[in-house]
Write a structure and sequence with these properties.
single chain, mainly alpha, two-stranded parallel ribbon, 3 helices
């Protein structure tokens, strides 16, 4: 991720935490909010929300590409 950021590649971070190395290198940060920050025992909720954000992101990209290359 650091190398991609240094090479001016767009990095998207999908995380529940604002203070982490990934967020610092990312140009775009998508946060999955979880009220329980103890992810060592059970991080199911934060993972499900991250998967939901990924699904929405992929759908938006597919929709954008269809519109762009429609003609």
């Amino acid at each position: 991720v650091k190398r991609a950021s240094i090479n001016n590649q767009r990095v998207i971070a999908i995380t529940a935490f604002t203070n982490n190395p990934l967020s610092s290198y990312a140009k775009h940060n998508l946060y999955c909010i979880e009220s329980n920050t103890d992810t060592k025992r059970n991080d199911t909720i934060s993972r499900i929300s991250a998967f939901a954000v990924c699904d929405l992101l992929v759908d938006a990209i597919k929709t954008n590409l269809k519109k762009r290359f429609k003609g």
